[in-house]
Amino acid sequence: MGQEVERARTAVAKAKENKRVAVVSSGDPGVYGMAGVVLEVAAHEKATVSVDIIPGVTAATAAAAVLGAPLVGDFAVVSLSDLLTPWKLIEERLNAAAKADFVIVLYNPQSQGRKEPLASAHQILLKYRSPDTPVGIVRAVGRDDEKVVITTLGNLLDHEIDMATTIVVGNSATRVINEKMVTPRGYDLLKN
Length: 192
Ligand SMILES: C[S@@+](CC[C@H](N)C(=O)[O-])C[C@H]1O[C@@H](n2cnc3c(N)ncnc32)[C@H](O)[C@@H]1O
Fold this sequence. Notes:
Helix content is 30%, strand content 18%. It is of the alpha/beta class. The protein folds into 2 domains: 4-44, no CATH class; 59-182, Tetrapyrrole methylase, C-terminal domain (Methyltransferase, Cobalt-precorrin-4 Transmethylase, Domain 2). The strands form 2 sheets. Strands 2-3-6-4-5 form a 5-stranded mixed sheet, sandwiched between helices. The longest helix is centred in the N-terminal third of the chain and has 13 residues, at 4-16. The protein has 5 helices and 8 strands. It binds S-adenosylmethionine. S-adenosylmethionine (SAM) is lined by residues 25-28, 31-33, 58-59, 63, 107-108, 138-143, 163-166.
């Protein structure tokens, strides 16, 4: 983190020397990853290098798979990092997504020294959603130390959350069914 532009510049410089270069980015490189900065640097340097972007599994869908099926309908993804995006804009996006009843996936939720964004996001979400709304907290998905918790919006801040965590906040239809977080698709199966 913090070295992205430098990494992209190095990659583009090597590619201009006709070297084949791979820039490695976790999850999907096009989701808060290196794909955008590599394309921007190449354009900025007017480099005529060809760039192939190989899709990966992003934390949102990896987390959804271990939680159950919370993302089978419309959902929104919001990063709580205000390093590159002004906090006011993040707040506007959170308000809009919460008001529109999207399931919301939160990336970059909080670090040791950065607790306010998640606390503020929590307050915004509670303006539109019941404290009983199911919430999934997934840390280090796919790794040996993976941790999965299904809780409620009201209790979200009682859990350990760090920068290796992705949070999935259900919408008004999301339920916990057999210990899995599910947003019903609309088939009405559970009414009978
Ligand atoms: C800069 S973003 C990179 C996202 C990555 N490109 C992707 O597609 O998953 C970093 C954030 O992604 C999420 N994340 C990345 N890897 C994760 C993992 N293994 N388990 C849970 N969340 C993860 C966390 O919210 C973390 O703060």
